[in-house]
Amino acid sequence: MIRFLIVTFLFVLTSISFHACTEIQSEPKITLPAAEEWFMDDSTALYLDTFSAAFEEGLTNQSIPGGAVVIVKEGRVIYQKGFGVKETGKTDNVDEHTVFRIGSVSKGFASVLAGVLAEEDLLSWDGSVSSYLDDFK
């Protein structure tokens, strides 16, 4: 549970650092599964309400026009929500189809995920890339 909270926190922290977002018009919209209710109990509902309020407050405090969150548990979408607008001064809301420019942030994601894989003994810090990717030369 702590690992889940840490990864979620890092994702949220990274997400609220984005100031620019755009929607790609040329790509078809992908239908995402609705958030499922199977996991919901009173404490989870309270956590998600608190999380939503904190996320909205973070956007406001940092003057960020909008952001989006999705939480996946056991391969199932349990929470997804868009917050705010795509661009300051506009009325187009952020939703599950909004595409954000992530720039160099993927480096941070890669290092966090590598750490999680190493902790679960699925990756060795001393291993070579070619031992994990056959086509890597």
Q: Which runs of at least 5 residues are low in confidence (pLDDT < 50)?
A: 19-24
Listing every helix as H and every strand as E from the N terminus to the C terminus, the arrangement reads HEHEEEH
Strand content: 15-25%
Question: How many angstroms does the end-to-end distance come to?
Answer: 37 Å
Count of DSSP H/I helices: 3
Strand order of the largest sheet: 1-4
What is the overall pLDDT average?
78
- Specify the structural class: alpha+beta
Radius of gyration over C-alpha positions, nearest whole angstrom: 17 Å
| Total separate domains | 1
Helix content: 25-40%
The count of DSSP E runs of length 2 or more, i.e. the number of strands, is 4
Largest sheet: 2 strands, antiparallel
What does this structure look like?
There is one protein chain. By secondary structure, the chain is an alpha+beta fold. The chain has one domain. Helix content is 35%, strand content 15%. It has helices at 2-15, 42-61, 106-119; strands at residues 21-22, 66-73, 76-84, 99-100. Strands 1-4 form a two-stranded antiparallel ribbon. The relative contact order is 0.17.
